[in-house]
């Protein structure tokens, strides 16, 4: 039978004893400013213990700012260790780990004051441990579906940090250190600094106390909770990604069995197969929970690849989430933020088949005029004087809406009819010819002519070997971009957006939908603190859009173009079209259209891990205004930001799966991810701050 730990309150080792420290009187008081950061005011104590306190803080004058969690280190021993030994780790976590949507970001820190503190994004919704209690009431099939989805998102976050050089290792991964944003989106807290769970102060207005339990850096090199820590970690070994892999194996077993007090034993394989767990998951659990570190996967990347393939395997039992609620729903700012930055995978590869569900529906290629009219309708009229005012208001709203619609139609008519430098819907006359499509509100979408031709796609063996050697990339994933796998591509030519679709362009076309302003990088949203002086983000690329929403964007453009009798269609480019255009006149021997090197100066990527050169470059840590890098290394056909800034959705599926391809890398990624040949994929419902879109026009 599997190992079970019944008495979870008894200290078993010196490492467990600090976690049982009794509560202490608060050191701080409600209404006090955060020391050294007077713009934030403490509102409510969320947890505390012998090592410190955690408080909810709000911005003193900007109500649009979401609340934050501030963790104070008051214990002298822990304070000394934090300031003298763990300061570099804290800085690296602050710079890198918080970029991932499944990691709670460390936003600010003060390690120089009398009481050091760390400030995190506040995440309501409970922990994975509390969520697991609800899963017990589910069928094994449904529970395993959720477990695979949750584990994939966790391993994607861990894998990203394990690939840093040197790797960022959590060393205290457990269900209590995974916050469930909105009750369903896993986000790892205290990444890279270990943890000591503090005594909770009780219920709060934001959910159970476990949801906001304070965790502070540990002064113990072997930090970690015993059941989730391998033996070598408890004995004081140096951090290694395999420490987190061991914890993943324990957590996965607990999620499938719905028992947080158990761990894999000698009969773990039998227990998992009895519940019809996928064989790939059974194998991962057994290898990861091995006593021998060499038997475990080297890092979480192997988990990520295996679970990603499992999720995207073609199967009749795929479930899909409903579209996200409009931004006007009555939710707290932090909950709305998290709903926007969440990517969701729903899939199953279990053998017992309920009734099959269809593949994701793609919006119609024409705009439904009756639906738009219904959206413009304000409400019923009444006979009172106020009702007559409403009738007049409704009439003006209808007139204004029709005018907007007319402007857009007239714009496309003008575009199709021609004019100097205007988009006529026909083939271009020379490579890189630029034409524009006017949109409501005065903005334009510009397109460049990608000329006819044929070229080899994919990367040569030398390029793939360089990536494998330098970045420890998955051999399975990188083999999918080989030249003999990708083949050759021929095109009669097409128009491709010169830039990624901007926030202004997206809002102009999607104005009457709940998805008109999805971007995380705009004032008042989750990543606003990274904008600096760039308060006006209308020329930033739109991000946080799903593939299905991009189909709606394209359908609206095509609905208007059809009324203008345009001969052709707007679409997302296929990845073959995208790569052909990205390479420009390059023969295919270079990783980038401008050459062999990328370190953040030629394109918006994380330049601290350069490719093709030893010289490190900048890391902007956010999207940039489209076209910002065009002057340094212009594309031969006038295209901008084909490398970096944001990933771009493509039309096609990834190798027969339900996932959709994304290309180009992003501000979050290292340079090797932005290579012309690199292939990546996400669920069509993925909503991330590093994925945007670029559209094309295919003339008839």
Automatic annotation (TrEMBL):
<dbReference type="GO" id="GO:0004672">
    <property type="term" value="F:protein kinase activity"/>
</dbReference>
<keyword id="KW-1133">Transmembrane helix</keyword>
<dbReference type="InterPro" id="IPR016187">
    <property type="entry name" value="CTDL_fold"/>
</dbReference>
<dbReference type="InterPro" id="IPR042095">
    <property type="entry name" value="SUMF_sf"/>
</dbReference>
<keyword id="KW-0547">Nucleotide-binding</keyword>
<feature type="transmembrane region" description="Helical">
    <location>
        <begin position="395"/>
        <end position="416"/>
    </location>
</feature>
<dbReference type="InterPro" id="IPR011009">
    <property type="entry name" value="Kinase-like_dom_sf"/>
</dbReference>
<keyword id="KW-0472">Membrane</keyword>
<feature type="compositionally biased region" description="Pro residues">
    <location>
        <begin position="351"/>
        <end position="361"/>
    </location>
</feature>
<keyword id="KW-0812">Transmembrane</keyword>
<dbReference type="InterPro" id="IPR008271">
    <property type="entry name" value="Ser/Thr_kinase_AS"/>
</dbReference>
<feature type="region of interest" description="Disordered">
    <location>
        <begin position="345"/>
        <end position="369"/>
    </location>
</feature>
<dbReference type="InterPro" id="IPR017441">
    <property type="entry name" value="Protein_kinase_ATP_BS"/>
</dbReference>
<dbReference type="InterPro" id="IPR005532">
    <property type="entry name" value="SUMF_dom"/>
</dbReference>
<feature type="binding site">
    <location>
        <position position="71"/>
    </location>
    <ligand>
        <name>ATP</name>
    </ligand>
</feature>
<feature type="domain" description="Protein kinase">
    <location>
        <begin position="40"/>
        <end position="318"/>
    </location>
</feature>
<dbReference type="GO" id="GO:0005524">
    <property type="term" value="F:ATP binding"/>
</dbReference>
<keyword id="KW-0067">ATP-binding</keyword>
<dbReference type="InterPro" id="IPR000719">
    <property type="entry name" value="Prot_kinase_dom"/>
</dbReference>
<dbReference type="Pfam" id="PF00069">
    <property type="entry name" value="Pkinase"/>
</dbReference>
<dbReference type="InterPro" id="IPR051043">
    <property type="entry name" value="Sulfatase_Mod_Factor_Kinase"/>
</dbReference>
<protein>
    <recommendedName>
        <fullName>Protein kinase domain-containing protein</fullName>
    </recommendedName>
</protein>
<dbReference type="GO" id="GO:0120147">
    <property type="term" value="F:formylglycine-generating oxidase activity"/>
</dbReference>
<dbReference type="Pfam" id="PF03781">
    <property type="entry name" value="FGE-sulfatase"/>
</dbReference>
């Amino acid at each position: 039978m599997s190992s079970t730990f019944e008495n979870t309150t008894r200290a078993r080792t010196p490492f467990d004893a600090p976690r049982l420290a009794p509560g202490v009187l608060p050191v701080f008081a409600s209404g006090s400013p955060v020391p050294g950061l007077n713009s934030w005011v403490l509102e409510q104590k969320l947890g505390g213990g012998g090592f410190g306190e955690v408080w909810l803080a709000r911005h003193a004058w900007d109500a649009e700012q979401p609340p934050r969690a501030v963790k104070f280190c008051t214990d002298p021993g822990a304070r000394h260790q934090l300031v003298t030994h763990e300061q570099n780790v804290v800085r690296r976590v602050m710079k890198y780990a918080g970029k991932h949507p499944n990691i709670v970001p460390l936003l600010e820190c003060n390690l120089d004051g009398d009481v050091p503190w760390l400030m995190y994004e506040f995440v309501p919704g409970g922990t994975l441990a509390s969520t697991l209690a609800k899963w017990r009431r589910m069928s094994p099939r449904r529970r395993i579906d959720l477990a695979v989805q949750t584990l994939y998102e966790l391993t994607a976050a861990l894998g990203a940090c394990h690939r840093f050089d040197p790797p960022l290792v959590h060393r205290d991964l457990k269900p209590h250190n995974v916050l469930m944003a909105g009750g369903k989106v896993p986000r790892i807290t205290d990444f890279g600094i270990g943890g000591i769970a503090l005594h909770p102060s009780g219920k709060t207005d934001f959910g159970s106390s476990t949801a906001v339990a304070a965790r502070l850096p540990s002064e113990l090199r072997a930090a970690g909770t015993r059941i989730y820590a391998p033996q070598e970690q408890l004995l004081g070994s140096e951090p290694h990604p395999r420490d987190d892999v061991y914890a993943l194996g324990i957590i996965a077993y607990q999620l499938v069995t719905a028992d947080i007090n158990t761990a894999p034993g000698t009969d773990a394989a039998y227990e998992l197969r009895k519940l019809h767990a996928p064989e790939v998951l059974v194998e991962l659990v057994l290898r990861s929970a091995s006593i021998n570190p060499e038997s475990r996967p080297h890092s979480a990347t192997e988990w990520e690849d295996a679970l990603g393939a499992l999720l995207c395997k073609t199967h009749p039992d795929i479930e899909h989430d409903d579209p996200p609620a409009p931004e006007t729903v009555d939710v707290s700012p932090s909950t709305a933020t998290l709903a926007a930055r969440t990517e969701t995978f729903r899939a199953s590869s279990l053998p017992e088949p309920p009734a099959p569900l269809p593949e994701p529906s793609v919006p119609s290629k024409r705009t439904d005029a009756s639906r738009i009219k219904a959206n413009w309708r304000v409400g019923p009229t009444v006979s009172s004087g106020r009702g007559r005012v409403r009738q007049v208001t409704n009439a003006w709203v209808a007139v204004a809406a029709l005018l907007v619609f007319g402007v857009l139609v007239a714009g496309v008519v003008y575009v199709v009819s021609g004019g100097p430098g205007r988009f006529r819907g026909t083939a271009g006359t020379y490579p890189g010819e630029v034409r524009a499509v006017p949109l409501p509100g005065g903005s334009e979408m510009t397109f460049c002519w990608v000329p006819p031709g044929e070229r080899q796609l994919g990367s040569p063996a030398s390029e793939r070997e360089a990536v494998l050697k330098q970045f420890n990339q998955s051999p399975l994933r990188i083999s999918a971009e080989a030249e003999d796998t990708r083949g050759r591509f021929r095109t009669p030519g097409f128009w491709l957006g010169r830039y990624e679709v901007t926030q202004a362009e997206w809002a102009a076309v999607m104005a009457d939908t709940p998805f008109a302003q999805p971007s995380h990088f705009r004032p008042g949203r989750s990543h606003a603190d990274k904008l600096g002086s760039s308060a006006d983000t209308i020329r930033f690329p739109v991000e946080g859009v799903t593939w299905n929403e991009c189909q709606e964007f394209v359908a609206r453009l095509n609905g208007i173009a059809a009324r203008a009798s345009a001969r052709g269609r707007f679409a997302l480019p296929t990845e073959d079209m995208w790569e052909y255009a990205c390479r420009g006149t390059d023969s295919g021997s270079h990783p980038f259209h401008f050459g062999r090197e990328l370190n953040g100066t030629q394109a918006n990527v994380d330049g601290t891990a350069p490719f093709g050169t030893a010289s490190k470059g900048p890391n902007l840590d956010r999207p940039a205004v489209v076209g910002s890098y065009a002057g340094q290394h212009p594309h031969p056909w006038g295209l901008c930001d084909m490398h970096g800034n944001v990933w771009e959705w493509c039309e096609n599926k990834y190798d027969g799966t339900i996932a959709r391809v994304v290309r180009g890398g992003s501000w979050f990624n290292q340079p090797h991810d932005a290579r012309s040949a690199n292939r990546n994929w996400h669920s069509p419902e993925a909503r991330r701050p590093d994925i945007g879109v670029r559209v094309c026009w295919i003339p008839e």
